[in-house]
Write a structure and sequence with these properties.
Radius of gyration: 27 Å
Number of strands: 17
Largest sheet: 7 strands, mixed
Structural class: alpha/beta
Distance between the termini: 61 Å
Shape: globular
Strand content: 5-15%
Length: about 625
């Protein structure tokens, strides 16, 4: 490549002529397609912001200026232009290049992001810190139109309008989040995009007004009001300016020359300004343009066909969830389904087509989704809110106040629980047991396999009448222990195998690992019991009694952080019931933020693979028997 392989970025970018920047953009786009085809990653969103990112780095100096990327998965071009191109073969791999901005990775990443709707709040805070310290740098927050459904955005805009000092907000409008955008904001932006009458009239009036002689400040104010009057008359509403933030746009987000012109002008503004850019998600790669959701986050794929290289092994938990919801809803007309901009990722596409009037996509607005579900429950329906574990964190206050205090029958289908792997710290679902299990009136369950998952859904929806969360992992659904199944009863665990002296209790997704450990112990001459916890809250009191009467060594295995997890809850119940003389070890993640890597690598690193668990159990037992 003429530019990418020879230039020293970002310094050499500013030495180029504007006419050469489109060539740079073309090389970056080619590099991204070929690189992500090998490593996997977020392709569609990054292809859509190539010209935007090139223009930003041409106009600003982000070793001094600050840029905050909302969500951050669209920062690949930014990483290339800040000297990290040669690290892309390690993208999203263990100890490799992060798929998101990381301040510890580069001085050019000024704020870590991973969830949506945060960049305006963070940018405003950085801008105010600059004002207080007397700095002069620019602050640029980039946010997608999908993120504009998040309430945090409007809290930030409300404050930005009352703020002094320069602050640039770039609204990257590609009409998509992960799935197609929904709601009033999406409609509003569509109206802004499709206002050629306003754009044409504004151009004609501007040319006319510019040709007139201006005499004094009064005439200037009259002309400004005239242009504003046209704007307010021809557009349905100029919401951003009514909030007090100057609006510029719509602007072609793929026209580098025009972007440079706009950016250089707004750098002179001393008040918050929002630039509305129109871009195409997946720009320059026909497969991604045609199927932007499919290429939002994708594994390795064939560049020519766009077909993933890894073979699908079986149904995922998300797919099973969607199909089971349809099956149950055919008989139960009170079931309604809620998602926060994730119908495809959560498996609800099946439901949305079968029962469109009972399907609600609220956009990226998890807090609203929880309280909205509470309202549906209060109105006599059975809402099932399906959401990734990491995103449910955003609705914590609403879970407590609006669902659990009123003991409303809301079913939380918590997808991507446990380790998700290559998206890293912001997406690992290893905190949900901790933040759900201590809430009064909340029941938390987790299935050992696909068959139990379907039964748990049926139990939660048709046989229960209070807040309940089912947590299940990312990926292919396990079929382990399919011949072992006891009827689900409230608060009861399930013995897979009985034994003596040693009991291993696992939570949901750890069934496969626990079974391997069990077999290792059998071969080592032990006779352990193997128990499926099923209920994380409440913990089975009969199991507590069993431990007191029959077992000396107790081991729990879960894919949650240790504090607040199942193991800690079991320990507490044992103490509460006067059981003190047991040797207990809880296998869980330490209280850390787990970085990116494959599931296998992460489990091994933290001692949660079957070999290390077995070794620890043997040493633990021998220690107490004074044999080592």
């Amino acid at each position: 490549m003429k530019y990418l392989d020879k230039l020293n970025f970002p310094d050499d970018l500013k030495k180029l002529k504007e006419s050469e920047l489109n060539l740079i953009a073309a090389e970056i786009r080619e590099f991204l397609i070929n690189s992500i085809a090998k490593t996997g990653g977020h392709l569609s969103s990054n292809l859509g912001v190539v010209e935007l990112t090139v223009a930003l780095h041409y106009c600003f100096n982000f070793s001094y200026d600050r840029i905050i990327w909302d969500v951050g998965h669209q920062s690949y071009t930014h990483k290339i232009l800040t000297g990290r191109k040669n690290e892309f073969n390690s993208l999203r791999k263990k100890d490799g290049l992060s798929g998101f901005p990381k301040s510890e990775e580069s001085i050019y990443d000024s704020f870590n992001t991973g969830h949506s709707s945060t960049s305006i709040s963070a940018g405003l805070g950085i801008a105010q810190a600059r004002n207080l310290s007397g700095g002069g740098y620019n602050v640029v927050s980039v946010i997608g139109d999908g993120s504009m459904t998040g309430g945090l955005v409007y809290e930030a805009l409300n404050n930005a309008a009352r703020s002094d000092g320069k602050f640039i907000i770039i609204l990257n409008d590609n009409q998509m989040s992960i799935s197609k955008n929904v709601g009033a904001m999406s409609k509003y932006l569509t109206e802004l995009r499709s206002a050629p009458k306003y754009i044409e009239v504004k151009k004609d009036v501007s040319e006319l007004l510019n040709s007139l002689p201006i005499f004094g400040s009064k005439m200037i104010k009259i002309l400004e009001k005239t242009k504003d009057g046209i704007k307010y008359a021809l557009l349905p509403s100029v919401m951003f300016e009514q909030l007090g933030v100057k609006y510029i746009g719509p602007v072609d987000g793929h026209d580098i020359g025009n972007l440079i012109n706009v950016f250089n002008k707004v750098k002179k503004f001393d008040k918050p300004v929002l630039i509305h850019l129109l871009t195409t998600k997946g720009k320059g790669y026909k497969n991604a343009e045609k199927y932007p959701s499919k290429f939002h986050g994708i594994g390795s794929f064939d560049v020519t066909t766009g077909i993933p290289l890894s073979e699908k092994k079986g149904e995922t938990y998300s797919e099973i969830f969607g199909k089971t919801m349809c099956k149950l809803s055919a008989k139960n007309k009170k079931i309604v389904a809620i998602t926060a901009a994730m119908p495809s990722g959560t498996g609800l596409e099946f439901f949305s087509k079968a029962y469109p009037s009972r399907f609600f996509d609220v956009g990226i607005a998890e807090s609203h989704a929880v309280t909205f579900s509470a309202g549906l429950a209060k109105g006599g329906f059975t809402p099932v809110f399906t959401v990734y574990s990491t995103f449910l964190q955003r609705g914590y206050d609403q879970i407590i106040h609006d669902v659990c205090i009123q003991k409303l029958h809301v079913v939380f289908a918590v997808d991507r629980a446990g380790i998700v792997g290559d998206d890293g710290e912001t997406h690992q679902g290893i905190y949900d047991l901790s933040y759900l299990s201590h809430i009064p009136n909340m029941t938390v369950i987790s299935p050992k396999n696909k068959f139990e998952f379907q039964k748990m859904l049926e139990f939660s929806i048709n046989e229960f009448d209070a807040p309940i969360a089912i947590r299940y992992p990312k990926g292919t659904a396990s079929e382990i222990f399919k011949e072992y199944f006891e009827e689900i009863k409230f608060g009861k665990s399930e013995y897979i195998f009985d034994g003596e002296d040693i009991i291993i209790i696992f939570v949901g997704n750890m069934a496969d690992t626990a079974f391997k450990v069990y077999n290792m112990l059998i071969r080592a001459g032990f006779s352990p019991a193997l128990v499926n916890a099923r209920f994380i809250r409440p913990i089975d009191l009969e199991l507590i009694q069993d431990i007191e009467n029959r077992f000396e060594f107790v081991f729990t295995i879960e894919d949650n952080v240790e504090t607040g997890g199942f193991g800690g809850g079991l320990n507490s119940e044992l103490i509460k019931n006067g059981v003190f003389n047991k040797k207990i070890y809880n296998f869980a993640f330490p209280d850390v933020f787990v970085k990116q890597g494959s599931k296998t690598e992460i489990y091994k690193e933290f001692g949660l693979d079957s070999e290390k668990i077995f070794e620890k159990i043997i040493c633990f037992i021998e220690k107490y028997k004074s044999l080592c």
